[in-house]
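Let's study my pick:
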Amino acid sequence: MKDLIQTFKNKYSPLQQILLIGLFVRLLSVIFSKGFGWHDDHFLIIEPAQSWVDGEDANYWLPSATDPSRQPQGHPLVYTGLHYLILSFFKIVGLNNPQAKMFFIRLLHALWSLFIIKYSYKITEKLHNAKSAWYVGLFMALYWFMPFMSVRNLVEFVCVPLILIGIWNLMKEDKALKNFIIAGILFAIAMAVRYQVIFLLAGIGVGMLINKDSFKQCVTLILSFLFVFFLSEGVRDYFLWHKPFAEFMAYIQYNLDNATVYGTDNWHMYFDLVFGLLVPPLSFLLFAGYFVSWKKTSLLFWPVLFYFAFHTYFPNKQERFIMTILPLIIICGTIGMFMIYEKRKEKINQKLFKVCKTFVIVLNLILLPVLTLSYSKRHRVEAMTYLYHQKDHQAFIVEDSNKDSEFLIPPLYYCGKWFSVLGVTKVFTPDSVLRYFNRQEKSTRPNYVVFMQAENLNARVDSMKKRFPSLIYETTIEPSFIDKTLFFLNPMNDNQTVFIYKLK
């Protein structure tokens, strides 16, 4: 084993070693980490893209000749459009199985995420030294949440490589205008993927002023950014909606109108997340290091500060928002942490330091495989996958009557059909569903019922059987370990056993 490790070290550079380690762990997530992490990384990316490929418009995002009342809803269409192209290619080559397609999409994202490792390493090495770069590279490769995040369709994380590569171009010593053009292009694409990147770009602008980049360089960056963003957002929306930047303006208006509707929390929510996700006590050192390194890391420090400040101030707070700046915090924090250590090494209690270091490593090694191999939202995905494999499946009813008015949305992508799902709730009763059922053509009527949650199951099944006497039990699908764990930590996270019945 020692000879094998030594051969590995001799054959590859430190950066290549870390990239190979990062790739190996991410491939495990590609294979095992099915499903989706949040609502947005599936229902705002995969569902609309696949529906467009199938000639539908599941979310009613696009203009329609039969529905002139449709308006822009404020969605960045670049990333969803990219998945439309990928899924269209799969259709051309005859790859139709939803799970198989998602395997390759996870693989593409895993490969894309390697740029986070590479450019985090290069940026750290340039700003500080090879030792701190090695640690940053390991953090990016093996931090417990990194492989899981790397295979998700989450715009908050997908835009990070673009930001890091752009910053790297601004840091190059030759200061050639082409580097600023490339950076502007990358920043424009990043913002087209995730509109809130604009706050990072404001911070990068401040960093450039502090670094005393020339007026010509700044103008070059701005012009290249505006040109690409105008093409991706302005021209596209002019053809779609007959007005430029329609989606961008709708996004701003939607967030202003709904600032207090989603995920509002206390002001220190993101501080709690950073301290928790980066594993204490290391997270406290990284956070302190972030502030200590501000002069060295101005192109990273100020973007983080602007982005963090806005999201702390804005009422709508969701965990995924903070993912965009975690790699930047890790870079700044690691550089600052080493600066603190080098300055105060003699005063540090080495025994306590080793205990803390061991605790962080052990905890990370426990959490890493758990999340890396986790199947998130398994019950919802596997329920649809089961129906996909039923040759007689036409449509289904969701029975979620433990809820007041809104049932849990099923990921139709995995069942391979697009239709308006009937859902039983406390408001929309079985009698209401029966009336709709009877109005439908026999060829399109639901022939399966998906019961969500085990609570009151017998009574709910009996109630449905009174309206649909032919109801017969088919199978039960359990949530995954990670879903059960998240429910245990916070009951707001849906953890539902699914029971599938057939209407014969």
Notes: The chain has two domains: 2-34+115-372, 378-503. Strands lie at 396-399, 422-424, 448-452, 471-477, 498-503. Residues 2 and 95 are 43 Å apart (CA to CA). The two ends are 60 Å apart (CA to CA).
